[in-house]
Amino acid sequence: MSALDPVPVPEPDEHEDLRSTFHHELDEIREAIAKLSAGVTEAIPRATEILLTQDLEGAEYMILGDDEVDAKSLELEERCYAVLALQSPVARDLRQVVSALRIIAEVERSADLAVNICKAARRIYGHRLDPRLRGIVQKMGDQAQKIFKEATECYLTSDAVRAAALDDMDSYLDDLQRQFVQGIFESHSGDKVELQVAVQLAVVARFYERIGDHAVNIGERVRYLVTGWVPEHAGAARFATRAAASDLE
Amino acid sequence: MSSVSDTSAAPVEIAVAENAGQAQANGPNVFETRDLAVFYDDFRAVREVNLDIRQHEITAFIGPSGCGKSTVLRCFDRMNDLIDGARVEGTVSYHGVDLYGPDVDAVEVRRRIGMVFQKPNPFPKSIYDNLAFGPRLNGIKKKAQLDEIVEQSLHRAALWDEVKSRLKASAMGLSGGQQQRLCIARCIAVKPEVILMDEPCSALDPIATSRIEELMQEIKTDYTIIIVTHNMQQAARVSDRTAFFTTEVNPESDRRTGRLVEYNPTSKIFSNPDDERTEQYVTGRFG
Hints:
The complex is a heterodimer.
Chain A lengths: L19 H34 L2 H32 L3 H33 L7 H27 L2 H5 L1 H24 L5 H33 L4 H17 L1
Helix pairs in contact in A: 1-2, 1-3, 1-4, 2-3, 3-7, 4-6, 4-7, 6-7
Chain B lengths: L2 H5 L8 H5 L8 E12 L2 E12 L3 E5 L6 H7 L10 E9 L2 E2 L7 H7 E4 L10 H11 L5 H14 L3 H4 L12 H14 L4 E5 L7 H14 L4 E5 L3 H7 L2 E9 L6 E10 H6 L4 H7 L5
Parallel strand pairs in B: 2-10, 3-8, 3-9, 6-7, 7-8
Antiparallel strand pairs in B: 1-2, 1-4, 4-5, 9-10
């Protein structure tokens, strides 16, 4: 039993926000996380370029820059803890803080992956890349950036509908990764790429693919903060059904 | 299980057997209200309340002032009978029996359904006499039996250790928090089935409040508790289910009437409520 009958929603003058300072802090935290996430979105094409142009200086710059992302993530995480400790958030406010904590971790990890691409660029320095592989790396970089940008915007605008589409965008990135790994095998067997380079490239493909996964996770948290639902509920329901069925036997 | 509950098995001979079949996963319904409305003369204070109160659960009523939560609470022990001009429409059933039926004795109702008020209201008597008052009214005369009830009730209300050496001292000498626990003990002493609490902690400091909240958790295994509270965190901390009431302007009379908006498990109300108005209220976006 819940919403019983349609009752007129209170008139606008009753929509006074009694906790405006607290809600302002929640908005600020969300905006700061979105900003950090936008920074990661920009780091992805930069990492791709560094990889493809073998830009050692750029790689160094990106690797050092990760400390700033770590510092900002930590600061935002602590702001969330302060809100939890001091404001006792409930309902949507609680979902906002809990989602923020999860999303910070996704963004921070994605920044690490962009840095890992730069580290891989250093490891394969001096080796030429097969043009076909270069093409797929470029596509993976573009798609990872696109997904991450979309996830960031979904979060900033609390758009659960757009967030639900991220999973499908990620499928394309997964396809590219498979194509890329296949391409590595072919290049390697045609003696166009050395084993050590091939392994590094396979790992790089994995980094892009993981960035896409983190963007999907951000989308799931956006859906949670808007609707209270996460996709894991579907799996949990299946598990409960199986558990109930096995009880009966 | 304490002996209080053993001896308190009696209250509900009314219709437990018939109700047992409908028992839900979380225990049978103690109260069911259907289209409940309460009027003070021609003013309709609250309307269309449909609620099932489950046994051995703590149910919290929250909502802004004037939303009818205390009014609905008072329907459960027919305290509204004592207010001139108050009138109840719809039904309130207690274990399937219409509480407002012609054969129901309001005094008997209040024996089974105890109430704890906002301000502690001990009688200006000794601690012992406060607790023995109800049982004596119920005809218990033997000192040994009264002693036992007094001790058990004080134990149950987590007050025994603090007052055991001064049972003959005036209850008025206790602190506010102790007085409120004494009132809960006095309520328990007559072995009710339900305890209604109307903002029981609003006159208490945080430590006394925590004691009462702990006490509620301890005694809910034996009692069904309904609490009206202005403190949303308290509702979140102590209750199993929460009913959110609000007020709406009545188009005909331009006066405000209370309505039940949402009744759900407390964890749902405070994490992901179904109704937008509940969300606005619990997050402070609606004053």
